[in-house]
Each structure stands twice: as C-alpha cells, then as structure tokens.
Write a structure and sequence with these properties.
2 copies of one chain form a homodimer. Chain A has 286 residues and is α/β, with parallel strands linked by helices. Chain A has 2 domains: 168 residues, NAD(P)-binding Rossmann-like Domain (Rossmann fold, 3-Layer(aba) Sandwich); 106 residues, Orthogonal Bundle (6-phosphogluconate dehydrogenase C-terminal fold). Helices cover 49% and strands 13% of the residues of chain A. The first copy, chain A, is built from 11 helices and 8 strands. The first copy, chain A, has an 8-stranded mixed β-sheet with strand order 3-2-1-4-5-6-7-8, sandwiched between helices. In chain A, α4 links the parallel β5 and β6. In chain A, α3 runs parallel beside α4 and α6 crosses α9. The two termini of chain A are 30 Å apart. Chains A and B meet through α6, α7, α8, α9 and α10 of A and α6, α7, α8, α9 and α10 of B.
C-alpha cells in the first residue's frame, strides 16, 4: 500500500506509525512544508521517504493532516492529482467549509471528510504516538459522497486502528464540536493567561499549583498555528458558545457577590452530573 | 501512635492509609458526622475504630479534614480538649480565617495550619489513596505559632509521606491559591454547565468529546459541600480572579468578533509558555 502523509505532525505522524505497524509492507511517503519536520519524521521512522504532490496519482491513501486554513487550499489540488483508486482523507477539526470547498470537484468521490477526535497538547513529528486512535471516535461527514469502495478501504484502516466510526452532517459537526472541544481550548488558554499575568512577579507561586490546575490548563500548551484557523473557520459557533460560557461565569460571580451560597451549591451540584456523562470517554494517558 | 481523623473522606482517609502503612503500630480512630462514611472507613480498613472528641486528650495526632466552614467551628473545640503532646493539623484550602480563629486560643501551640495541595475530583472514604501526598506541596502557615516539638512531629510525618514543605503567611496563601486552584474549579464547573445546558437534548453528542474536554471539566465532578464554603471564605480573592478571567475571555471574544486572528494567535502563543511553568507539577495519575 502506497501511503502519503501530507503534514507529518502529531496526527499525521501517529497515523503513519499505526499504518506501518498494521501494514508492515506499506510504503509511507511524507510531504511537509517544514523541512526540519520531514527530516525528523524520517529519523524517527515515521516515513520511508519524502514524496511530492505530483506522485499522488500512484497513492492508495493520502492523509492530509495540516492546519484547516492550509487544508482548504490544498485539498482541491490534491484531488486534481489523485488516481481512480486513491482515497484522500483529512483530519480537520472543522468540517463545513472543507465539504463545501470540494462539493463540485470532479474527484469528490475520492475524498472522505474525517475528524478523528484524538490528540494531545503536543505537536510535531516527535509527538506522534502508536495507538493514539484506539477507542477514539472518528466522525465522518457526507460519507455518501465518497465512492463506496473507497469508503470500505478507509473504514477497514480506521477499524484496524481501533476507532469507533460516527456519521454526521458537517454543519451539525461544527456546531457540537464548538461545545465539546473548541470552548475547552479557549477556557484553558484564557485560564493560563489570567494566571500568568497576575502571577508574573511571583514565579515561585506555581509550586502551589496541583494536578487540578494542570488539568484545566493542559490545552493551553496547544499549537496556535493549528488553533487560530479553527476558531476562524468556526467563528459563528465559537462566538455562541463563548457567549454562553461568559454568561454562566458572570451568573456565578453575581451569586458570589450577593453571598448566595445556596445558589452556588446548587450550580455545582447540578453540574456534578457531568460524572455520568463523561463515563464513556477514554482518557489519553500521555 | 494514637491518631484521630476527623472527617474520613478523600484527604483524611488518604492520610490514614499512609499513616497505617508508615507506622503499622499506630491506632487510628475515626470521627465523622456521616455514619455511613464511618462504617465504610472501617470496612475499607482506613480506621481501626470509631472515636469521640472527648478522647482527644490522649491523641498524638489529630487530623481535621472537613469542609472549611465546619472546620472553623470545630477547631476551637478540638483545641479545648487536646493534651499537651497532641498535634492538631487541618487540611483546608483557605488559611486566613482558621488562623485568625485560633489566634488567641490558649492551645494555639498545639495547632499547625496546613494545606496539602493534593486531591482528586472524587470524595468520600472510597476515594482515599495510599501515596496521594507523594511529591505534593504542603503549605504550612504561621509555623512559628506551633510548639517546636510539635512542628518536628508533624514535619517528620509529612516527609515520610513524601511531601515537600513550604511556609507562607495565610493571607498570601489565600490570594495565590485563588489563582492556581479556586479559579480552575469555577472555570471547570461553568464549562460543564455550559455544555450540559446547550447539549441537553443531544445526549449522544458527548461521544464527540475527547480527552481535552475531559481534562478541562474534570474538576466539575468535585464536591459542592467542600467547595461552597471555600468560595465563601475566600470570596474577595475569588471575585478578583474571576473578574480577570472574564475580562480575558471577553477580550478574546472581541478579537474573534473583529476577525483579529493575528491577535488571537499572539494570545495563544504567549500563553504557550505555561509549558515551562507547569514542568514541575507532578500529575495525579488517578
């Protein structure tokens, strides 16, 4: 199997690792605008060789795992080049725009719009992990627009990686993912910012921080190059969830101001049911 | 060693476990307003027997690990009862009020005001863990007001549990802990609330949530009975940090509204330095 990974970072690199393990005979070529990343990916054994876009007509599978702004520009070019049997997948955290972008492309059938909900706060080839996708959800949008044989090819690989498959329309995906992923990143970044600003003259204060703080600011380590275009593409949904979040914080603040501790207790007690809701989420141990 | 644990939950129970392991000959008595918890603690082997406040004059060590409102009321009674050699420690997340409360107590020398920065989002005796305090920071306030021999006794036990010791004045403690702990809990509770409210009719949306979401809402599982009095006692500091947090979120929102993606990128890029800051924090693996 000839595999091309465009963007050999955390997600692309982890997919490359799994594919090399599951299909030892496969040849994995890497394409990346960052020469250092390419070199690292080769040294780490994530890829066998460097590839070029021109070669994609030979590819069985093309994984495009790059920031979602670059993705929108590149996917049409990739589809221009592919062969009949080539399956192209992406891994972007927004789905509406990419689906819209390829809608009328003559090779739309070669593309499967994917969002594997997996990752860590780290980035680059050295962050790649074998087994990252195990028991994670892969959301596939507009699956009916992908050629049936290519759907089968993709699903087989995803299942071997251990992923659960879920089908969704791209607009619904972007709306819900704003709540369960994009908002978490903003809350974490702004929490990190608040504490760094206020405590900048007291660097040694951070040894007062425990695992609870670490857990809530973990995502503030995420890559700005990846996240800025996600917030841009999903602006309307993100604006809406952010508004709701700020309103809830203000309501909490106002209860505290009025010494309404019964109200504060009830807020927390009601939210405790998140325990039940979270039960199914597999934790990332890294 | 005769040890009394008043409040046999996550913290008290974990201390009991460590003490039983480190000092196998010790006798651990439990006191708790919750009869079920007492029974569970006995079944789990956290305590040897049920104790009463009257017996405290015989105690070598009294650990008071109860919500901070109950703590304020109980500590003077405990100090009324203790013997010459009894060391009383607490584990509350606020320190200014408890230090003020005992300031003029004739047995002030028997008390050491402690805040071991350790825990999980779970509560009750079944949440108790051996080794919970390993490599965690224990903040001790106004140590000079504790009798020197009792300081030595306490420090020896804490060191055996693997804790790092840090001395601080109680007012500074409460100010800084609002940033690195109390704010994280509010941000997490309100994040959980926002998502539960908005997605209440779409329960199956939560399998879209990944480990990032889980990480940021983990603390929303925490006990309201424990956290409400903490927010009450530390109201002024919490109001201040919450205000700063909301302002930062609003600034982010306003950048997004104006399509200032360079500004958004820079915010995140600047906050990435939290990576360096967090390096020293030992994670809780539970």
């Amino acid at each position: 199997m000839k595999v091309y990974v465009i963007g050999i970072g955390l997600i692309g690199g982890s997919m490359a690792k799994d594919i090399k393990f599951l299909y030892p005979e496969s040849e994995i070529s890497g394409i990346d605008v960052d020469g250092d990343h390419l070199q690292q990916a080769k040294t780490l054994g994530l890829i066998d060789r460097q590839g070029t876009i021109d070669e994609l007509k030979e590819a069985d599978l093309v994984i495009v795992s790059i920031p979602v702004d670059a993705l929108l520009q590149l996917i049409p070019n990739v589809l221009d080049t592919v062969g009949e049997e080539t399956l192209v997948i992406d891994a972007g955290s927004t789905k509406a725009l990419v689906c819209q972008m390829v809608e009328k492309h003559p090779n739309r059938r070669n593309f499967m719009a994917c969002h594997p909900i997996a990752g860590t706060e780290f980035s680059g080839p050295s962050a790649a992990l074998r087994g990252l996708f195990e028991e994670k959800t892969n959301i596939i949008c507009e699956v009916e627009k992908t050629a049936f044989k290519l759907q089968e090819k993709g699903l087989k690989i995803f299942r071997k990686m251990g992923m659960r498959i879920r089908y969704m329309n791209p607009v619904a995906h972007d709306k819900h993912i704003a709540y369960v992923s994009h908002l978490s990143h903003i809350s974490s970044f702004m929490l990190g910012k608040t504490v760094i600003e206020k405590e900048k003259n007291e660097r040694d204060i951070f040894d007062m921080a425990g695992s609870g703080f670490e857990s809530t600011v973990r995502l503030a380590k995420s890559s700005p190059a990846m996240w800025t275009p996600i917030f841009k593409q999903n602006k309307n949904n993100v604006m809406e969830v952010l508004e709701a979040y700020i309103e809830n914080l203000q309501a909490f603040q106002s209860k505290l101001k009025k010494d309404d501790y019964e109200g504060i207790y009830n807020e927390m007690d009601n939210t405790n049911k998140i325990k039940e809701i979270l039960k199914g989420i597999p934790l990332n141990k890294t």
